[in-house]
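Tutorial, part two.
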Amino acid sequence: MTRTILQTLGIALLGVAFMGCAEKPTKIDNDVDHDKDDSDPIGDPIDKPTQPEDTTGSEDNTHDHMPGLGADDARDPYEIAKQREEEGTPDARARLHSCQKLQITAVRNVLTDFGVNLDAEGTPPTAGQLVNGGGTALGAANYAARMGEDIVWTAAGAAKMFDIWVQAAPEIIAAMPTAEHCMVDGVGVEVFTDDGQGTITCNEDAVTCLIGRPATPEHLAICNSLVMSASTPDKGKNIAVAALLSAAHSCE
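Running the prediction step on this input gives:
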């Protein structure tokens, strides 16, 4: 009985296989022209000769760019040279075109170079404590979540950074005369000059060191105004230094 069933199944499978082989294969129509039609508007045929007007520009097919950026007339080269001279050396000018958020490591280096002790503690928190505890606001990297450090400013990060500058200002002012990178011909500079009659002015060389570019009369005017408009001279000095550092390191 079992043998008969197996024979029947075998004959059925052979029949199916034979029918599959007997079917006609799909015919490929080799007579269809698959080449691109010469009238196709997408492109020109390969054998079409190139004409001179195909590769040359004219008033009809060339965009007329403005000679200047935002102005109808080109800028005077002497005016550009004067502006670059005021901005400083090429390495100083290059820093004026970068607005990436200051990385936390760079913040530490800047503060250390200006004489700030990042290990100091106090009440209210010192600049070092604000840096060490402000990683979230400053956009610190979260490696557990595979997220690198932020490269753009946020409102929280900018506010936290200004707090750090304010807390660091007294130390920066005190250490400025001994800061090597701020010395002029080997001589340290004071941030402020007091004439003894109640007028405190900002030192041009010190402001230049703080902002990393040649200080202009406008910089000095802002600095002097911040000092003299505060409730006390010491608070004015701290606010002026913090404002200059904050603006210089956030591309303002």
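The longest strand covers residues 192-194. In part three we will examine how such features are distributed along the chain.
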